């Protein structure tokens, strides 16, 4: 059964450093932690609506603690208290963390290409590429290396700093020609000076090391939702399978890209539970995609109602505070957001987007609309990591 959810800061350089003096830097880094922000002298005042936030949490007399260093001891209760703060307070705190840990007013542009589409053996309830569902997605063979690199050049010319490649596999076949082609793609993308990311399903130790040797920047492996709700969404692999692959990737020295999806019928506790799992990973993910379900007819979730944009804003803000060093990537579902809603997500700490007309098989805002939005908001594309061509 699907459950229903209910003052100018100092300049930050690309390295994350600040041009201000030590006193200003210290001030910007003293961000009030939601779990410590209760003023016990104040009565508990319940916020009206679906959230359990307490207005006393936003008292200026609350104790403060540094929130710019990632911590790995979050509890679900702490994360829920943070998520449920009055939205203006939550946004303020998230922006403080963002300005202290991320390049100011810069958004990473990523391009995502489906290099092998459809006929996936998994039964992810949201995915039109699953062979279990009739969604009209036609199965396609793995793309040729030359064609993929051509797409990468186009993305780079359009302003992308990261090129992501997705293959609809449960896991790559060990020693297969197809996996060797993927390694060639990774090497080629890195030679262009782009960051390279792939999502191929589960990996073993040998495959992970081969990707590392090929120069892979990041590996995407989303948790999708909380461990408690996961069985309602996927049955063909376990939550532990996902965590094991993430652990292998991190141990090999590849950056972890891991996030999830909201709007699949999960509760708010499931949403913050997923963030707790991500935040308590060591190391924390380098990037955290925040997706809103794109309901595709033919999938078990095809009739789900769209997520309210403010729920996405809350997730971005909570992720920014709990995982301060990560790029928070505004991902699937962005096509349904207004310009104003997207800017709220940026205010909440999102600083990475996928651009181009597709996200694997679902729609996405077009390139010109994205660049116009960034220009009108005074934002600029983030440059690739300095080691992208090494």
What report would you give on this structure?
With 390 residues, the chain is an alpha/beta fold. It folds into 2 domains: 22-101, no CATH class; 106-381, TIM Barrel (Alpha-Beta Barrel), CATH 3.20.20.70. Helices cover 33% and strands 14% of the residues. It is built from 11 helices and 14 strands. Residues 1-66 and 358-364 have low confidence and may be disordered.
CATH hierarchy class name of the largest domain? Alpha Beta
SSE topology string: HEEHHEHEHEHEHEEHEHEHEEEHE
Over the alpha carbons, how many angstroms does the gyration radius reach?
20 Å
Average pLDDT metric: 80
Q: Which structural class is indicated by helix and strand composition?
A: alpha/beta
Overall geometric form: globular
Q: Can you count the helices?
A: 11
Percent helix: 25-40%
CATH superfamily of the largest domain: Aldolase class I
Task: Please give the number of β-strands.
Answer: 14
The span between the termini is 49 Å
CATH architecture type of the largest domain: Alpha-Beta Barrel
Outline of the structure:
The protein is α/β, with parallel strands linked by helices. Helix content is 33%, strand content 14%.
Task: Summarize the topology.
Blueprint: H1 22-29, E1 30-31, E2 65-66, H2 76-83, H3 87-101, E3 106-116, H4 145-158, E4 162-167, H5 177-191, E5 195-199, H6 205-213, E6 218-220, H7 239-251, E7 255-257, E8 260-262, H8 268-279, E9 287-292, H9 309-322, E10 327-330, H10 339-347, E11 350-354, E12 358-359, E13 362-363, H11 367-377, E14 380-381
Helix pairs in contact: 2-8, 3-9, 4-5, 8-9, 9-10
């Amino acid at each position: 059964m699907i459950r229903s959810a209910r003052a100018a800061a100092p300049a930050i350089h690309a390295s994350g450093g600040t041009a201000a003096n030590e006193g200003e830097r210290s001030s910007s880094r003293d961000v009030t932690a939601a779990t410590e922000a209760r003023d016990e002298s104040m009565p508990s005042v319940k916020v009206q609506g679906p959230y359990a936030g307490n207005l006393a949490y936003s008292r200026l007399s609350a104790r403060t603690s540094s929130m710019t260093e990632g911590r790995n001891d979050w509890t679900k209760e702490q994360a829920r208290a943070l998520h449920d703060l009055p939205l203006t307070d939550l946004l303020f705190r998230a922006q403080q963390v963002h300005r202290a840990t991320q390049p100011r007013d810069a958004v990473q542009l990523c391009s995502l290409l489906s290099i092998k589409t459809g006929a996936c053996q998994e039964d992810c309830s949201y995915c039109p590429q699953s062979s279990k569902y009739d969604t009209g997605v036609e199965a396609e063979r793995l793309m040729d290396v030359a064609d993929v690199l051509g797409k990468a050049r186009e993305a780079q010319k359009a302003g992308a700093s990261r090129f992501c490649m997705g293959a609809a596999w449960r896991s790559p076949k060990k020693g297969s020609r197809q996996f060797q082609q993927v390694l060639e793609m990774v090497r080629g993308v890195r030679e262009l000076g782009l960051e390279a990311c792939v999502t191929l399903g589960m990996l073993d130790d040998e495959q992970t090391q081969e990707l590392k040797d090929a120069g892979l920047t990041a590996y995407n492996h989303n948790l999708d939702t909380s461990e408690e709700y996961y069985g309602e969404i996927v049955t063909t692999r376990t939550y532990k399978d996902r965590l094991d692959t993430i652990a292998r990737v991190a141990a090999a020295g590849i950056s972890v890209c891991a996030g999830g999806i909201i709007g699949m019928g999960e509760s708010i506790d499931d949403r913050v539970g997923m963030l707790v799992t991500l935040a308590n990973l060591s190391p924390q993910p380098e990037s955290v995609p925040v997706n809103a379900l794109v309901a595709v007819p033919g999938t078990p979730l095809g009739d789900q109602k769209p997520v309210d944009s403010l729920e996405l804003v809350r997730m971005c803000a909570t992720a920014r505070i709990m995982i301060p060093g990560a790029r928070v990537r505004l991902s699937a579902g962005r096509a349904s957001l207004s310009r104003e809603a997207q800017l709220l997500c940026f205010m909440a700490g999102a600083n990475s987007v996928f651009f181009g007309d597709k996200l694997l098989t679902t729609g996405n805002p077009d390139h010109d609309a994205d660049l116009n939005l960034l220009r009108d908001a005074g934002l600029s594309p983030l440059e690739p990591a300095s080691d992208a061509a090494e």
